[in-house]
Amino acid sequence: MTRALDPTEYTPCFRWRKNQIVCEGVALDAIAAREGTPSYVYSRAAIESAYRKLDAALAKALGKTPHTICYAVKANSNLQVLRLLSRLGSGFDIVSGGELERLRRAGVKGERIVFSGVGKTREEIAAALRAGILLFNVESAAELEVLAAEAARLRRPASAALRVNPDVEAGAHPHISTGKHHHKFGIDWQHAWKLYLAHRDSKWIAWKGISAHIGSQILSVAPYRESVGKLAGYVRGLQRAGVSLSYVDIGGGFGVRYTTENPPPFEKYAQALAAELRGIDCHVFVEPGRALVANAGVLLMRVLVTKDAHGKRFVIADAAMNDFLRPALYDAVHPITRATRPHAGGRRRASDAAIAGPVCETGDVFLDSWPLPEAKPGDLLVLWGAGAYGFVQASNYNSRPRPAEVLVEGSRFRVIRKRESVAELMRGE
To answer: Cα separation of 138 and 161, whole Å?
Structure first.
């Protein structure tokens, strides 16, 4: 990638003010000066805007058919982000007992929670039953047996759906495609059909829905049409067999723009879903994560050193793959720019560089051959599109403390997760 980008042109609530990039009303260099780097910075207004736009698009397309946005907690699980979405009216999609506990601490009631995930433990299932969650998305016959046993033990019938694997190809990278038969997720329809019928009169399993999830960072409505069309057919077939469902969970995966992608607007996704669900009398769930928070966040980092090796320019920053894993894990491309423009007469020529971190891995490179104005130690850089799958995938590899998280609200900002200390690295050892 050699073309310089200005992400402020397509990222909400981040813009240039004179020679500085500001998030809402706060200059990024002011945040870095006070809180240090690396630091994640999120815009409250951007999260609110994305949620409301998706909610409005679904309401318009689905008409009288009710819907719930179940935010995928795995995308960004900071308690303040969860509380913000809860106040907006969001439901939540979880994949672990830890995420269930986060929602409890954020004040979210169980009736707003859907539990997905291919490997739920007995303890997690029991905790979710005690919390009175809205729906279990069951992914195997073995899991269904455990769910029924725990429901009987606790004397709490389980509201359940089967996650069907619709064999639909989608997702921007093989690691985030989830809807083909060779993936670990879900159950093929022939097997699911038998499970629905076998447990139709169960005392402890209450069939309430059906679900599917085909991938992430999907940039076309066509895979959704195919998947949701199949789900609608399954609902009709089950109804004829005496299994009436209340919920259709179509999953998430709506794509966002990181560099030059061109994802459909929320209205196009919503219209495609509505067209396939016409005549289905069910409450519709969608499970977006990235689409609500990715472009609401950035990762701030400072240049440590620059070096040239056999004609190649390296810019080494204080953030690394342990802080932001997506480039190493998915070959994901996230733009990196300077946080300030040079003053008149001091403009620096952009030339291609490898922007890397200090972790002792060859793969610790955010971008290769990326156009970046000449950088010097201490310069503040901005990695864009870091609001989703950023901090949640951070680790302590190389015994590096994890970054701070900051939330901007208008002209003010606050730390919503303090930076780890070196002493905290040894906690529990």
So the answer is: 6
